[in-house]
Amino acid sequence: MSVTTLRCLLPRHIRTLLPARSYYSQSFPIPHTRQFNHTTALPYRASYSTSRPTSPPPPKQDIEMAEPTGLIAKSGIELLTFGTPNGFKASILLEELKAAYGKEYTYQTINIQKNTQKEPWFTAISPNGRIPAIVDHDNNNFPVFEGLAILNYLARRYDPEHRFSFPVDSDEYSEAEQWMAWQHGGLGPMQGQANHFFRFGQEKPPYAVQRYVGETERLYGILDARLAGRDFVVGGRFSVADISLLGWVNMATLSGVDMAMFPNVQKWLDRCLERPAVQKGFAVPGGPSQFSNAALAKALEADPEKRKAAEESLRFLNECKEKYGYKYASP
């Protein structure tokens, strides 16, 4: 099925919020160039490394690319990912480790719209059939799945100077562990449900919309309070605790969250986005997401039709809240 056909299956009010090109090809892009590992061209396979092709971009067209069918690297870390909030956890830390220690890695695009993550070769690595996953070829091809586990594994094994983590016997280690667990079990799942019911569900039951957007707001209030007087979540410096949150907070607008309500979170996000490795991590595997807060704001500014659709969505959200008497409160 082509990306054009997939776009047509979306409800009209969602299509009007999207950029002119398809959500599937632009927000989570399927690359149209030949793909590379560290040194060798691999024609027409949907896999990448941190080395970008230098050839001019191809013409914009709807090209169906072959999906990965297995691992391609022989050494280093191999990342299997897609442009989602959880996928960005792994790519951001890997880019930070590359900048700090010269740790190279290879990545492949796993197109979740084609269910590549359900293929037997992938579920042998990630039994849950979800991205991201990594394979450490320098550790007997050891596989790790789930974003939280990947962050902990990479920090423990490849951050010996604790530039992005903390010594295991320190209080900061426990603090980071707590906030990462809070994200993994709270903010991520609740914001994901808000995305689904508010934006992408075929049906939009008002109770579910206000329930999950409201709970996401409550969790953002907790994070905002944590960041009052702090530059970063734990220990006064950028760490895996921040990385675990970045992908989600950078798409808060999509979930119906008004970032103006959470000024400390906004300042923290801006601070993190200044880091070159964070910017590079957000560009893996297929370029910056069209669903980031900044990208959506730019699209609304440029397109009156999108602004009108956004206003209608906000009116619907407020009606859902009013129907069930929702009042923001945190914690």
Describe the structure.
The protein is α+β, with helices and mostly antiparallel strands and 331 residues long. It folds into two domains: 28-158, Glutaredoxin, CATH 3.40.30.10; 171-323, Up-down Bundle (Glutathione S-transferase Yfyf (Class Pi), Chain A, domain 2). Helices cover 47% and strands 8% of the residues. A five-stranded mixed beta sheet has the order 3-5-4-6-7, with helices on one face. Strands 1-2 form a two-stranded antiparallel ribbon. A hairpin with a 5-residue loop joins strand 6 and strand 7. The longest helix is centred in the middle third of the chain and has 30 residues, at 171-200. The radius of gyration is 20 Å and the shape is globular. This is Glutathione S-transferase. It comes from Hypoxylon rubiginosum.
Q: Key features?
A:
331 residues, alpha+beta, Glutaredoxin, Glutathione S-transferase Yfyf (Class Pi), Chain A, domain 2, 5-stranded mixed beta sheet, two-stranded antiparallel sheet, 13 helices, 7 strands, globular, disordered N terminus, Glutathione S-transferase
Summarize the structure.
With 331 residues, the chain is of the alpha+beta class. The protein contains 13 helices and seven strands. The protein folds into two domains: 28-158, Glutaredoxin; 171-323, Glutathione S-transferase Yfyf (Class Pi), Chain A, domain 2.
